[in-house]
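Troubleshooting: if your tokenizer reports a length mismatch, compare your output against this known-good record of 294 residues.
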Amino acid sequence: MKSASIVILTHALQGRAEGYFIEAVGRLWQEAGHRVVVHQGLGAPPPGDLAILHVDQTRVPAAYVELAARYPRTLNLGAIDIGKRRVSRNLVSPDDAWSGPVIVKTDANSFGNPERRMTEALNRQRGRWPQRLARRLAQGLRPPTAQESYPIYPDKAAVPRRVWRRPDLVVERFLPQRQGSDYVLNSAFVMGERWIVSSYTAAEPLVKITGLRALIPLFEEVPETVRRVSRELGLDYGKIDYTVHAGEAQVLDVNPTPFLGLVWDKSERLDRILATLAAGLDDYLGERLRAAGG
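Known-good structure output:
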């Protein structure tokens, strides 16, 4: 197949995609003969056969969406709002009939950390960070909220009243997947029509990679509910976390910019995930490039 030019579009304050899955996938594309360019910010973007909108924010600013739309094909152009109020099918309100356990989360992705990192970077850029830090220290530490953890309650009546008044927090049904006494999290990685699921178990209800008890062998069978959410949100590339509770898949989180981090050691498991994502490029470029003579 003929080589292609792929442009990864990131926020001006985000960096050049270091540490994200897309950086590792991009290296595989380069090894296959494709040209991969990272474009930061809103300046004139370079030409390309395909662009990937990779702005690590819960809601992508309109200016970046407009820039991404200049390309003949842009992945994740529809996945520009991954807030829990948009993604979750299990939100609970004070008047809801749900009587089971609930979990309090931030509406923003990943505890709102991507937004905080952007704000801190902007403050440093403008020389405001020392003043902001001093003001925060003077005000004292904030009381614990769901921004530091995702607390679980036996029912919605136990949720503190202040939570219901905060637009930055949501209350969801707590629908865990169990394997014996452990809890299970499934992370479905997708690129085009290529899917692969990495599942983990942990002793704690909030399954985090840093607290894993066991890894479940990779598999490719993805529940239709997860596939449907991907289509509805316009997620062409990324990761969807889900559980299977009482036989039904429950989507927890959608992430168009999955982070690789330091906990992913070199392994056959990681290599297979990256290879699956890299192969998904063919679903977008294959037919057109073959028609062009590749």
